[in-house]
Every structure is written in structure tokens, then in C-alpha cells.
Amino acid sequence: MQQPDVPLLIQQLNERIGEEHARRLSFYEWMDEHTKAEFINGEVVVHSPVRRKHWKITDLLSSLLSIYVRINKLGVIGTEKVMIALTRNDYEPDIVFFNAEKQPLLKKTRCCFRCRTLW
Q1: 68-107: per-residue pLDDT in tens?
Q2: Rounded to two decimals, what is the model's pTM?
């Protein structure tokens, strides 16, 4: 904080954050349900389709977790195409868990769900 260029660095950082926010808003307008894409560290990352082995494992894990979560009334499990928004990044994890507290906030018309980061 004692460096003379700190105000300039803060200004540059704020500009970069503003630019990243604008790119993120553009990403929200661009993305659709047919494209697997994520917004990571200010960049759009488009993913290729997964191999059969991957989706079969994901399907099995999702089924097992969903049954366990439902029986124990813990919340809900989401799979493919459920986008979660963290502080700077938006991800489409293969499997995501929303606890019972978060579940009522998951609106049917939303495609991106805000999550708290753990760090």
C-alpha cells in the first residue's frame, strides 16, 4: 500500500474486472441449452461431447446419489447442463448437489444457479 503506483494498479484492476463482468454478461446471452460451455477466469471454454464411458459412469453415480439424497431428504442432485455460478466462474459440473436449504431457491425458469465458494 506504500507504493506510489497503488492507485493506478487499483484502477487497472477495476477496469479489468469491469471488462470481465461485461464478457460474463455476454456469455449469459450467448449460451444456450445445446452448447456445453463454461465461463472460467474471464474466458469462454467450449467443451466437446463426452465419450460413452464417461456419461455411463456419470449416469450411474447420479442415480445412486439421487436415491440416497432423496431417501434422506438432503436436497437434490443435478446433472449435465446445470450451470453453477461461483464468484468469477460459471461451471457445468457433471454432477452437482444442492442441499435442502438451497433447493427452494432453484427456480424452474433459471439456467444458472448461484453457489457460495468454500474458500
Answers
A1: 999 999 998 988 778 888 888 888 888 988 888 887 777 7
A2: 0.70
Q: Domain ranges in the chain?
A: 6-114
DSSP state string for 37-99: EEEETTEEEE-PPPPHHHHHHHHHHHHHHHHHHHHTT-EEEEESS-EEE-SS-EE--SEEEEE
Give the CATH number of domain 6-114; options: 3.10.129.10, 3.90.1570.10, 3.30.70.1730, 3.10.690.10: 3.90.1570.10
Length, in residues, of the chain: 119
